[in-house]
Amino acid sequence: MNQHVSFIFDSKLITAIRALQNGLADIISNRDEQHQFISAHMTVAMGNDVTFEKIVGPITTVLNQHDSLPLILESVGVFIGNAIHLAPKPTLELLHVHAELVSAMKTVSEVPQWHYPGAWVPHIGIVYPYRNEDMSN
After folding, report:
1. Full-prediction pTM beyond 0.70?
2. Tens-digit pLDDT profile for the chain (137 aa)?
3. How many C-beta atoms lie closer than 10 Å to residue 119's C-beta?
4. Which of 2, 11, 6, 17 is nearest to 98 (CA)?
């Protein structure tokens, strides 16, 4: 089973993301209920074929070294496949925590190379999918 390490946010940021999603809902006409909006989280690492029980120790060790991680949301982007995301500013602290989490995950699981630091910058997915013609609105 694949396991993802994701950050969740304080209520202020969740409220702001929901407001953005509601605004996007007004312009996106393709409203597939199963894929309409993604819950507010930021995936920072992923392991293949690993159980939660195997990763909880190494991941907890890393996270206990950090009180919180301030994010500066810098831009809105679109991935291939029509997913809209918010991109945090890639601060040294964010990149450092990402690298630590990937290293910890690698002690118990194979980590896809596209999740390695330098290949992956953590982001917040907010809408998936949309149709290209919806974006012209």
Report:
1. yes
2. 666 777 777 788 888 888 887 777 666 655 444 344 566 777 777 777 777 788 888 888 988 888 778 888 888 887 776 678 888 888 888 888 889 988 988 888 888 888 888 887 778 877 766 555 544 44
3. 9
4. 6
